[in-house]
Specification:
With about 300 residues, the protein is mainly α. Helix content is about 65%, strand content about 0%. Helix 2 packs parallel to helix 4. It is globular.
Length: about 300
């Protein structure tokens, strides 16, 4: 009843865009139902769905994107729910973390981790990190580990190693990955984040979510973010020209699902314009581009 009432009263309502604080409080209350109460499998599934729906809250008012506070609260709440379920062990994990739910969580977090608000990206990075380094079996696990650094940012109390054992784990992770991760590098900095994250464009599982978040940054208004995301995107496709057609197909898929959503469509066309300006969309015998992208 709490879950259904919260849906009706506007956890993700567009009708009352000025009530962001209310929706944030509602998200926290819904989360406490799972953390404090004894939920059955059906109620737990409903709670997850409500929180996932909140990741699509892009309400705005005179203050700007107030929906970002709801999205951040939802991601933090989903982390808490995940930790609670995992700590309870089997069989609750098997009942809760279905393959479909794991995909929805990671896709939602990855999209948010590449969007235009620094604060939101940080929360999303922590959420992705927590999932990737949990005991769950995830699609493209190794690829996700490459894309998501062990330390999302220097100042993150969630991610910095606190004990000798954790520090040893960081060192081992650095060695196993074959890369050097410096603790004084802020990976939420767009110049550090986007070049690493775009490796996920090779994953059929996550490419659409990466593209959906990426185009919002490329087509944004913050000059430093636009430059960093655009440069990383062009550099990636220049070095991996065989992926151009795949990326174009993903752009088309996003356009088809979000064609009525100006928040996505406008920056998506700016992204296509960028590809045209850099000649990456030239049609050659070596690259087969989806003609439907150029005909729309």
């Amino acid at each position: 009843q709490v879950v259904s009432n919260s849906r009706v009263r506007g956890v993700n309502s567009k009708a009352e865009v000025s009530l962001a604080e209310f929706r944030v409080s509602a998200v926290k209350a819904i989360t406490n139902v799972q953390l404090v109460g004894e939920c059955n499998s059906e109620s737990r599934t409903q709670i997850y769905q409500v929180l996932l729906d909140c990741l699509e809250d892009y309400s705005t008012d005179s203050r700007g994107d107030i929906g970002s506070y709801v999205r951040e609260a939802a991601m933090s709440s989903l982390q808490k729910c995940n930790h609670f379920v995992i700590s309870r062990g089997h069989p609750i994990i098997n009942l809760t973390f279905t393959h479909d739910l794991k995909l929805k969580l990671l896709r939602g977090f990855l999209q948010q981790s590449l969007e235009k608000i620094d604060r939101t990206r940080q929360v999303a990075l922590e959420a992705v990190h927590a999932l990737v380094h949990s005991d769950l079996q995830l699609d493209d696990h190794d690829l996700l580990k490459r894309a998501v650094p062990y330390l999302a940012t220097l100042t993150s109390s969630v991610l910095l190693p606190k004990t000798d054992k954790e520090r040893e784990g960081v060192a081992k992770y650095m060695v196993d990955s074959g890369e050097e991760y410096l603790q004084n590098v802020e990976y939420n900095n767009p110049n550090n984040l986007f070049p690493r994250a775009l490796v996920l464009l090779t994953s059929p599982t996550y490419i659409d979510s990466v593209i959906r978040g990426l185009v919002v940054s490329i087509g944004g208004l913050t000059e430093s973010l636009v430059k960093a995301s655009s440069a990383a995107f062009i550099d990636y496709l220049t070095e991996n020209d065989g992926e151009v057609a795949t990326v174009c197909n993903s752009l088309l898929a996003v356009l088809k699902t979000d064609f009525k959503n100006d928040r996505v469509v406008v920056p998506l066309f700016k992204t296509v314009d960028l590809l045209l300006l850099t000649s990456l969309l030239r049609i050659t015998t070596a690259t087969s581009l989806p003609s439907s992208l150029l005909s729309r």
